[in-house]
Predict the structure.
Amino acid sequence: MTAHLLHVQPALPIATGMRAQDRLQDQPMTEPPANPTAAILVIGNEILSGRTQDANVQFIAQRLAARGIALREVRVIPDVAATIIGTVNALRAAFDHVFTTGGIGPTHDDITSPCVAEAFGVPWEPHEPTMRTMAALFPEGGFNAARQRMATLPRGAVPIENRISVAPGFSIGNVHVMAGVPRIMRAMFEALEPRLGSYRPVISTAVHAEGLPEGALAAGLEEIQRRFPALDVGSYPYERRDDRHGVALVAKGTDAAALAGAHEAIVALIAGLGRTPIEGEPPI
């Protein structure tokens, strides 16, 4: 059976943080460069209260995987200055990229931008090109103090274009600050994406089986993980409204040859348990 390799949404989280530049010190010179690592920081009381459901993590995760940037951690934190500052500093030290969403609007509780400035130890100040661009959109007196907050950035930040509502996100160091509104965040990410570079993409292979209990395959799946330590191998039970149920077995990583070997082992495991291996994810 031929392995089908697809771009994958990484599991969250899948490993402890380490920056690619740190891992390079332990790699032989003949190996390709290590893939960069990333974390996502979701900022907003509305997420933690359950009022709003996050719709950004999956999008960012999938786009990073396609570029070969390994998402290693996702945190959700409140609109509390000390928490934002401390978390930004912890994550930017641990990962090659940090992507934040939320908290860059015009209201009093939109404090992500000044907090990032404080985390980097730089002033939070008007960004004159952005000020001019935004001022031109409003009638006289319309570009008020609240709107000017969205044109105020940490000193040295590079704006991230926002084709939806103009007010930009920004990058400073390895931290990329974006809006929480999904449509605007996606526009910002698409503008930012070319700056991130491309590496060996994270790819995956999936096989599922109907009626196979997860407990029956645990030992065999652990052995496959042991044989292919560079991959992430997992099992994902599913249930459907028409009473179909079973388990999907997924392996993912950047090594296509290892993926093919793991695929064959997964197919053999399922067949050995008396079930029919079915290529791909189970249909919805």
About this structure: The chain is about 35% helix and 25% strand.
